[in-house]
Amino acid sequence: MFKGSMVAIVTPMHNDGSIDKKALQELTEWHIGAGTDAIIAAGTTGESATLEPDEQFEVISLIVRQAAGRIPVIAGSGTNSTRTTIRLSENARRAGADACLIVTPYYNKPTQNGLYAHYEMVMKQVDMPVILYNVPGRTACDLLPETVERLSQIKNILGIKEATGKVERAAEIIRRCGNTFAVYSGDDATALDLMLAGAQGVISVTANVAPQKMHAMCTAALGGNMTLAAQINDELMLLHKNLFLESNPIPAKWALAEMGKIQAGIRMPLLPLDSQYHQDVKKAMQNAGVK
Question: Which residues are tagged with the site Part of a proton relay during catalysis (predicted)?
Answer without folding.
Answer: 44, 107
